[in-house]
Design goal:
With about 150 residues, the protein is an alpha+beta fold. The chain has five helices and five strands. It has a five-stranded antiparallel beta sheet, sandwiched between helices.
Length: about 150
Amino acid sequence: MKLLTLVALLTLAAVPARAQQGCARTASYAEQSRTALAPLFYSSDQNQADVRGTAIQLLSASDSSYVVHTDSICTQVLAVAVAYMRQYNTTWAAGNEGNYVATVFRFGPYYAVTLAEARPPVTYSNGTLSGFQTGRSQTLVYSAPTLTLVRALL
């Protein structure tokens, strides 16, 4: 099983960033990320309200919250998010974004997409192999019906 996991990680690391599309970029830790991101949409805490600003409305518990696994939706949302990153991020504009993970979430009337650098696995001195490590990330929030950018978060 460990060998199979190692082969899968190495294979994923070798796939060029542009070859993966849609939900294939979803992070393995997507559900934990959804839980961590949810307070932005559902918490009335002042810190969350400051981050939300006036652009994102406070949602109720009855509003949906899930990781998107429908490939056509992931592809559509990522196309908009990557276009934004290429326009406003010099690394992406130069085509040097490298491999990245991109997870699409649905929170009520919003799609939130988190794009994070994916660093290849690291072999430690004791011979163990780490999983993917993530570097800098960007979260973009879009209106689900129109895919209009509502808020860019660091």
